[in-house]
Amino acid sequence: MDKIGIFDFGGQYCHLIARRIRDLGVYADIIYEPSDEYKGFILSGGPGDVYADQAPKLSEDFFIDVRVPVLGICYGHQMIAQALGGKVEKGEEREYGKKIAQLETNSPLFANLDKREQVWMSHFDQVIKLPDNYRIIGKTDICPTAAYQNLEENVFGVQFHPEVIHTPSGDKILDNFIKITGCKKEWKLEGWVETKINQLQSEIKDKRVIMGVSGGVDSTVAAVLLSKAGINAHFIYVDTGLMRLRETEEVSNIFRDLAVEDFHVVEAESEFLDDLIGIINPEEKRKIIGRKFIEIFEREAKKIGNFEYLGQGTIYPDRIESAQPSKHASIIKTHHNVGGLPEKMSLDLVEPLNELYKDEVRRIGKMLGLPEKFINRHPFPGPAFAIRILGEVTKERVKILRNADTIVTKVIEASGLYKELWQVFPALITAKSVGVMGDKRTYEYMITIRAVESIDAMTADWSKLPYDVLEEISNQIINKVSGVNRVLYDITSKPPGTIEYE
Ligand code: XMP
Fold first, then answer.
1. Active site includes 74?
2. How far is residue 334's CA from residue 502's CA, in Å, rounded to a whole number?
C-alpha cells in the first residue's frame, strides 16, 4: 500500500495530519526516522524554535537523499528553509488565529483553491530568507513567506496549518500534496476488516489467545474481530472494583448479544484495592494496575493452559503517545495497556487495532454490528476510577465517585448533550473543604466535573455546558452523594491540562 510518513516534531496537530491524510484515502504513519517505504513526507509543526541548539531536526542527508515529495507545516516549513540555507527569525508580532492568505493557485499545492483563502496561523518565528531556487507561493499581511515551493525538488512549505478545520480548504491542500506524491488511495476501512481477518487467521492459526476486555469500544471491537475471525480466543473481563455502575453486567450482556463465546468475568476488586493502598503517585497507580491486569491474565492463562497470545485493544495513538520513541514529545502518561506491561511476558501480543485511530475503530465497530449507543460511548481509561480519585484509592472513595459518575452521565444524557461531548465525567478531589448543610458544619470531599470537546483527544477544549445542566449536576451530587459537599467545574483546555487528572 502507498503510504505517507509524518515526522513528529512534537506538534500538537501531528496526529491530526495523519488522520486527515487517512481520511483522504492514503495510509499515514507518525515517524521519527526516514524510510524507503514512504512515497511522501510531511514535516509537522512543533513547539520549539528551529534555531535553538536542542531543536529537533532532520539531518542534511535527509534533504540530499530524499527522492519523494516533502511538505513542511509550520515548524516543518521553517526547518526546511533553515536546513537548506534560508533564514528563520522571530517576527515582529505573533500571528495567531484565522488569517487571509494570498495564494498562487498555479502551484500544484494550491490547485483548485481561491486566490484568497482563510488559513489558521499559530507562529512567532518566520522564514525571512528562502533557500536558493525556492519561490514564495503564499503570503499574509504579517507573513510574506506563508508558503513556498521548489518544484524541481518537489519540496513545499506552509507556515499555516492545513490540517485544522479553521483552514477550510486545508483538505484540498493535503489532497493536492497526495496527488504530487502520486500515492494511490488504497486506505479504505471497507476492505480493512476482511484483510485483517485473513491476516489474523494466517498469523495465529489455531493457537490460543487470551484477551482482556474492559467494556470500552477498543477492546470490544478487537474482541469481536478476533471472534469473527474464528480465532480460538478466551475473553476475560476483570472486575477491578474500579468500574462504573453495573459495568460488569452491561459488558456481559453486550458479549452475550454479539454471540461471542468463551467470555468470563474474573472478580478481582480486593486484589486491586490491596495493591493500591497508600499509593498516591499517578504513574505508580497506572503501573500497578497494568501489572495486576497482566498478572491476572497470566494466572488465568495458566489455569486453563496452552495460550500463546495476549490480545489487546491498543489503538494507534496509545502506541505513539505512551511508549514510543518520541525524542521530542515528552512522555505524557503511561497508558495502562501499553506502558504497564512487564518487560518479560510469557505471552506474545496480538493488537488488531494498533494501526487505527478512534474514529476508525468506531467505524469498524459499526461494520461489525455493534450497537450505535455502545460505539458512541465516551472513552473510559483502563485504570478506571483509580486515576479519577486524586489521592489514595479506597473502597469508600470509589463508591462516592461511582455515585457521582452515574448522576453526571444521566443528567448529560437527559440534556441531549452526550453526543456533542468527547467526554464528561466527575473526579474526586480528596482534599476536604468546609460547608454547611441543614445548619450543620460539614467537612467533606470535592467533586470536579470535567467536560471536554475534542476530535481526537490530542487537544481538547473545555465545554461551555449550560448553567442549568451544571446546576442540575451539582444539586443532585450534593443531595444524593454522601461524603461530598462541593462541586467544581473544570475550565482548563488540553493543553495545558490533560483530559484525565492523573
Ligand atoms: P489524557 O488524559 O492523556 O487522555 O488527555 C487522552 C484520552 O485517553 C484516555 N486515557 C486512557 N485510555 N488507558 C486508556 O485506555 C489509559 O490509561 C488512559 N489514560 C487516558 C482519556 O480518557 C482520554 O480520552
1. yes
2. 10
